[in-house]
Design brief:
The chain is mainly alpha-helical. It has helices spanning 9-15, 59-68, 70-82, 88-114, 123-223.
Length: 224
């Protein structure tokens, strides 16, 4: 359910660094009076995923990207609660079942309308009876159809989530490109400033050498 690092590298990196949505529930077997002893050997922490692009190490840029994918994180949390995406066979079966239920419903309602009114029952009473029976038939059909509709809705939610991942990755790419262009401009300014300082220092040195040479020539002429 998490974005694939191969197809969504930046999004996968950013979402792996999102904070937890809630506190971790306590272990029911934990006894505050008798805390468990630490294991004899601590396992080394797992290695973190390296950034796919160098600028992602910038905390400010990473914070901006986290805010940009907030809707993706919320949708992922909901889908984690609802469950994984149903396979194609399950979806096809749900569509077939819904079609059968609707077909049976139409037939039952048609039979109900065509059913003859007993002679000993008043017309208004018969209409009320038909309306009540139609209501029950529809409720039973909707109840039977409810599970299969949930399957299709879950599949649609996962489909929309896939589109959301693609859009989020494109958004993060634009944010990264903008940050990278800004970093390149800063580097150009630094290079220009350093070049200007070197050029000014060279002119000053040449001026000093020129002034000293003129002074020597003047003293030589006066001496002769």
């Amino acid at each position: 359910m998490d974005p694939n690092p191969k197809t969504h590298p930046i999004l996968s990196y950013v979402m792996a660094r999102l904070p937890s949505l809630g506190p971790k529930p306590p272990d029911p077997s934990f006894d505050i009076e008798q805390p468990p002893q630490p294991p004899p050997q601590q396992q080394p922490p797992p290695q973190q995923q390296p950034p796919p692009l160098p600028q992602l190490t910038d905390p400010a840029l990473l914070s901006t990207m986290r805010r940009a994918v907030g809707d993706v994180a919320q949708t992922r949390s909901v889908l984690q609660t609802l469950g994984p995406r149903p396979d194609h066979e399950t979806v096809d079966t749900a569509k077939l079942k819904i079609s059968e239920i609707e077909s049976n419903l139409s037939k039952e309602l048609e039979d109900l309308v065509l059913s003859p009114r007993p002679s000993d029952i008043d017309r208004l009473e018969w209409r009320a009876h038909l309306a009540e029976k139609e209501k029950k038939i529809r409720e039973e059909a909707e109840k039977e159809r409810g599970f299969y509709k949930m399957v299709l809705q879950l599949d649609e939610m996962h489909e929309e989530y896939e589109k959301l991942l693609k859009e989020a990755e494109e958004k993060l790419v634009k944010i990264y490109d903008k940050a990278e262009r800004g970093a390149e401009k800063e580097e150009e300014v630094v290079v220009e400033e350093e070049g200007g300082e070197r050029g000014g220092r060279g002119s000053f040195d040449r001026g000093k050498r020129g002034g000293k040479s003129g002074f020597v020539e003047s003293e030589t002429q006066n001496f002769t």
